[in-house]
Design a protein that fits this description.
38% of the residues lie in helices and 25% in strands. The chain is built from eleven helices and eleven strands. The protein has helices at residues 50-57, 62-73, 97-112, 119-130, 133-141, 177-182, 190-209, 212-218, 225-228, 235-241, 266-280, and strands at 7-16, 25-39, 44-47, 81-87, 144-149, 154-159, 165-171, 247-252, 259-263, 284-289, 297-300. Strands 1, 2, 3, 4, 5, 6 and 11 form a seven-stranded mixed sheet that branches. Strands 8-9-7-10 form a four-stranded antiparallel sheet. It is globular and about 60 Å long. The N and C termini lie close together (11 Å). It is an enzyme of class 2 (transferase).
């Protein structure tokens, strides 16, 4: 392959589920994964973030794995390059770090191949790699994505970008998605499934209509949060009490442990959650985020080396 122009892939993080929209609704947020590629004689991967360096030292590089899979699909060899990774998305905290890595790897590989795959095909590949569409959809497309996947076909519809802020409450304890999945039941009672489904329907309608009172009700999940609450200290209190402090409602972000609190009054909500975790004795990072309209993008950067 001929030397390529240096380029950068920028991918937003995401908050998935939004309560009752379990495995089907996600929202991009303004924290980003930056992947900077330049030609080189051999593969070199560096990371500014210590946690990313630790992961890569263990030989687990999801970005390269995804890129190699794309090249193998078209019977080509992945060319050597220098990759610099910079991430504002915490690892294993429920803000879409794995989904952003998958989307970033797909975008980069497609770019190097001359863009043979459409965005919809990249989405399909991302969903198959990730296992569900609610993180990869927002990271790829931006905004809010409502999606369904039956194991083969995936369908997605963009929803209007909400005007509220998102207070991300990030406890300083990782929670593997695999562990968070294990606590989920194999089945729900019929009445619980109906209630969960009705709230997901209400959540979706509220996102399209801008009915924020209905949105708060729609956040009240029955599919996963009741079973995961024991894994996330402080979750129940945030879910139940945040509305008393200026929030529309709250939800576990992805598989957790991050909690997303949706509000038009971020100052009051920040004070509330900081107090909760001070009383719980758990160190947390609290971020004020915004829904992110733009999804993954590629920009050429200066310089070309042989």
């Amino acid at each position: 392959m001929d030397p390529f122009l240096s380029f950068e892939v920028t991918v937003p993080g995401s908050s998935a589920n939004l309560g009752s929209g379990f495995d089907s609704i996600g929202m991009a947020v303004n924290r980003f994964l930056h992947l900077r590629f330049s030609p080189a004689e051999e593969w070199t991967v560096t990371a500014e973030d210590e946690s990313f360096r630790e992961v890569m030292q263990k030989g687990d590089n999801l970005i390269l794995e995804v890129m190699k899979e794309v090249f193998q699909a078209v019977d080509q060899q992945l060319p050597p390059f220098r990759l610099e990774v910079e991430s504002e998305i915490p690892l294993m905290r429920g803000l879409g770090s794995s989904a952003a890595a998958i989307v970033g790897g797909l975008m980069a590989a497609n770019h190097l191949l001359g863009d043979p795959f459409s965005v919809q095909e990249l989405f399909r590949r991302a969903v198959h790699r990730e296992g569900h569409p609610d993180n990869v959809g927002p990271s790829l497309f931006g905004g809010v994505v409502v999606a369904s996947w039956d194991g083969e076909k995936v369908h997605a519809v963009p929803a209007p970008l909400p005007p509220f802020s998102v207070i991300a409450v990030i406890p300083e304890l990782p929670l593997a998605t695999s562990r968070s999945r294990k606590v989920l039941p194999a089945q729900l009672r019929f009445d619980e499934a109906v209630l969960g489904s009705s709230r997901a329907n209400l959540l979706t309608a509220a996102l399209f209509s801008g009915d924020w009172d209905a949105f708060g009700i729609g956040l009240r999940d029955r599919f996963h949060q009741p079973f995961r609450s024991a894994l996330v200290p402080g979750l129940n209190r945030v879910l139940q009490e945040s509305v008393l402090h200026g929030a529309l409602g709250a939800a576990l972000s992805g598989a957790g442990p991050t909690m997303a609190v949706f509000t038009f009054d971020p100052k009051s909500v920040r004070q509330f959650v900081e107090k909760v975790f001070q009383e719980e004795g758990i160190p947390v990072q609290v971020l004020t985020l915004s829904p992110q309209a733009e999804g993954a993008v590629i920009r050429l950067t200066e310089g070309m080396r042989s």
